């Protein structure tokens, strides 16, 4: 028995033989637009004006050394599930590397599957074949989104947290006794106010802003998101003229949160998500800043441009129906000396 989609396609082809070219174009546009709207509504929830609305993460617990806390810090107990193409999951890999937590916290990579409609394991983990199975194992009857990253407790077989912004704070502070670089504090209390001020600007306009551009379902929604995105990038570029990093002379979580979006920008967001006013490499300071972060010890090893292109161009069918993956760009320029050492080392005023 033929599927509904196959029958529709056969009907359209039959009609096409008897319709004039203008009618064929109009019919094709109507059918594709209708299907696109249905697919986008499933992939990217929207508000009334067509702006993308990102659903909130559902698992928001933490890890603490307090005696009565259910999730104390332990080496080998917790595990990260990540997708290499995902910028949110990439944050956790960067912090894990910078802190030197590779021996304390294991990682399993999942891959997106168009047929499964979500993330899948290469081989079974915890008796699960898909990430959704893992979510269901953690919470019976779970109906929300099954997203990466996941901070998993192997002892109680549950998800501690699936919000990347919170996981990186946990990794920065709660495993220092097991870290190779416990002296590195990416969220120092003295700079917490500046870090959060930057985060409040970067998340809606840039981290989520590129998605608001790519997933916009009306011109008005796109124009608003694109304007906010490049206004924020211009502001950061100006700030980086006198500060090596966002909050002064040391890398913080604000830089980590920005980095994983900037790394994907010229490769994916510039073209596929229509963020094409200018590339990051074209900015006077942002381009060098991206190279500076990329060249930090271990960070380049967390980056996988082929996975990024595969996951975006190959899996986001409504944005790229042919699933054709572009050959470029060449990211070797990320290894070019950045020269950011010469920038004034004073705390930033946001």
Automatic annotation (TrEMBL):
Enzyme Commission number, as recorded: 1.8.-.-
Keyword vocabulary terms for this entry: Oxidoreductase
Site, Lowers pKa of active site Cys: residue positions: 269, 312
Protein name: Glutathionyl-hydroquinone reductase YqjG
A GO cellular component entry from the record: cytoplasm
Gene that specifies this protein: yqjG_2
EC top class, as a word: oxidoreductase
GST C-terminal domain span: 185-315
PANTHER family: GLUTATHIONE S-TRANSFERASE OMEGA-LIKE 1-RELATED, GLUTATHIONYL-HYDROQUINONE REDUCTASE
Coiled coil segments of this chain: none
A Pfam family the protein falls into: GST_N_2
């Amino acid at each position: 028995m033929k599927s509904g989609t196959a029958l529709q396609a056969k009907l359209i082809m039959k009609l096409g033989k008897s319709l004039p070219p203008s009618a064929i174009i109009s019919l094709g546009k109507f059918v594709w637009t209708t299907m696109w709207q249905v697919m986008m509504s499933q992939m990217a929830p929207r508000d009334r004006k067509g702006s993308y609305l990102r659903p909130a993460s559902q698992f928001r617990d933490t890890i603490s050394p307090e005696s009565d806390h259910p999730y104390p810090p332990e080496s080998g107990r917790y595990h990260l599930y990540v997708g290499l193409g995902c910028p949110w999951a990439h944050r956790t890999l960067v912090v894990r590397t910078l802190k030197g937590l590779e021996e304390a916290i294991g990682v399993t990579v999942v891959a997106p599957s168009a047929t499964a409609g979500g993330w899948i394991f290469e081989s079974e983990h915890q008796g699960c074949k898909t990430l959704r199975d893992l979510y269901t194992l953690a919470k019976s009857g779970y109906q929300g989104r099954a997203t990466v990253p996941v901070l998993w407790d192997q002892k109680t077989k549950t998800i501690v947290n699936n919000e990347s912004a919170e996981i990186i704070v946990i990794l920065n502070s709660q495993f220092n006794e097991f870290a190779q670089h416990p002296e590195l504090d990416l969220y120092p209390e003295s700079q917490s106010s500046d870090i959060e001020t930057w985060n409040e600007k970067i998340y809606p306009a840039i981290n989520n802003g590129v998605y608001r551009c790519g997933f916009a379902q009306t011109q008005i929604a796109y124009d608003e998101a694109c304007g906010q995105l490049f206004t924020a990038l211009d502001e950061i570029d100006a700030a980086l003229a006198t500060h090596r990093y966002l909050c002064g002379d040391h890398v913080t979580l604000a830089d980590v949160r920005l980095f994983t979006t900037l790394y994907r920008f010229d490769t994916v967001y510039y073209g596929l998500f229509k963020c094409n006013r200018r590339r990051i490499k074209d900015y006077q300071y942002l381009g060098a800043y991206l190279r500076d972060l990329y060249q930090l010890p271990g960070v380049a090893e967390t980056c996988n441009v082929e996975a990024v292109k595969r996951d975006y161009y190959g899996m986001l069918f409504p944005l790229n129906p042919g699933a054709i993956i572009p050959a470029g760009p060449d990211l070797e320029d990320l290894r070019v000396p950045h020269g950011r050492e010469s920038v004034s080392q004073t705390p930033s005023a946001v």
